[in-house]
Amino acid sequence: MDAIEIDITKHEALRKLGVDVVGIDFLEFQSAPIYSHCILNPPFRVGVQHALKAWDILWDGEIVAILNAE
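and the corresponding structure tokens:
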């Protein structure tokens, strides 16, 4: 499992759980479409941008996102 976490104080705890931290800013993350699932909890003010970015890196699978109604 890979994670992109903007709060670097959480990186060590994620790694202890066996998670590979592969980035800090999801919108700046560069990857070929290799992921089968994306689970998002983006900032509401840019939630749609995060959902579209997830679509770009998704190879084949599902996106689960917590987004506001807008």
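(Above: one complete record from the training split.) Helices lie at 11-16, 47-57.
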